[in-house]
């Protein structure tokens, strides 16, 4: 009996969007209108590349970015939940699939000493260039029309499960915890024994409700959460079953 926990990061593990939080490092804590308006739907990673270039041009250094990012609050109850998962790692494999980037997630998890809770993190690769600028790339290429150009979370989840099966690991149940529109594609991949846990009042919950109204509901069970304490209560029931 082993369970797979799949977490989104922004607005799920942390209570903010890491990509918009970094703007606190910009001059006057805001971006010029031209840059802000340059975002095109489905091309967020390219947009963030321009944001990082702007920060670099304005002399924002790695240590300042790191200090800023590690002040992001965790979602209510999340510190307790991650502690609980860490204590029960023999029952839970735990991964992050996120549209943030490797540098931000690494900083935040390590600062709070949670990096060992997660077996793998799938997110856009980022690094500092020799000139000290943060650069970011698309996670992968895919052919899914529903997802942003840089990341299809269903593809990530499917490839992870296939790789685990090759290693002889299969899961009794997958629990998917997220909030955003890009979490719907992997949720639609889940089977009837699995469970989707959308955050209350966020896009994922609304999209799942809409599918039910359109009489094409998701196959898995759905349990809405507002605090990570709700998730912990469910996991405690799960391991008693």
From TrEMBL:
> Residues that bind Mg(2+), according to the entry?
8, 10, 179
What keywords does the record list, in alphabetical order?
Hydrolase, Magnesium, Metal-binding
What is the required cofactor set for this protein?
Mg(2+)
Where does the chain bind substrate?
19, 99
Catalytic residues at 8, 10
Q: Which GO terms describe its molecular function?
A: metal ion binding; phosphatase activity
A family per Pfam: Put_Phosphatase
Family statement: Belongs to the HAD-like hydrolase superfamily. PHOSPHO family.
**Which protein is depicted?**
PHOP2 phosphatase
């Amino acid at each position: 009996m082993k369970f797979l926990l799949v977490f989104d990061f922004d607005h799920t593990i942390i209570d903010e969007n890491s990509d918009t939080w970094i703007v606190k490092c910009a001059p006057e804590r805001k971006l010029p209108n031209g840059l802000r308006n340059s975002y095109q739907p489905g091309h967020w990673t390219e947009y963030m590349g321009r944001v990082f270039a702007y920060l670099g041009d304005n002399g924002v250094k790695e240590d300042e970015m790191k200090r800023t990012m590690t002040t992001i609050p965790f979602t209510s109850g999340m510190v307790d939940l991650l502690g609980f998962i860490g204590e029960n790692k023999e029952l839970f494999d735990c991964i992050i699939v996120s549209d943030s980037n490797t540098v931000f997630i690494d900083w935040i998890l390590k600062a709070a000493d949670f990096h060992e809770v997660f077996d793998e993190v799938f997110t856009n690769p980022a690094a500092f260039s020799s000139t000290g600028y943060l650069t970011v790339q698309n996670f992968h290429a895919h052919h899914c029309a529903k997802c942003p150009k840089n990341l299809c979370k269903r593809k990530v989840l499917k490839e992870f499960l296939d790789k685990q099966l090759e290693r002889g690991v299969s899961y009794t149940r997958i629990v998917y915890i997220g909030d955003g529109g890009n979490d719907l594609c992997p949720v639609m991949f889940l089977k009837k024994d699995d469970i989707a846990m959308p955050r209350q009042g966020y896009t994922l919950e609304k999209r799942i409700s809409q599918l039910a109204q359109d009489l094409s509901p998701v196959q898995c069970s759905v349990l809405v959460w507002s605090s990570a304490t709700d998730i912990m209560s469910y996991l405690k029931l799960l391991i008693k079953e």
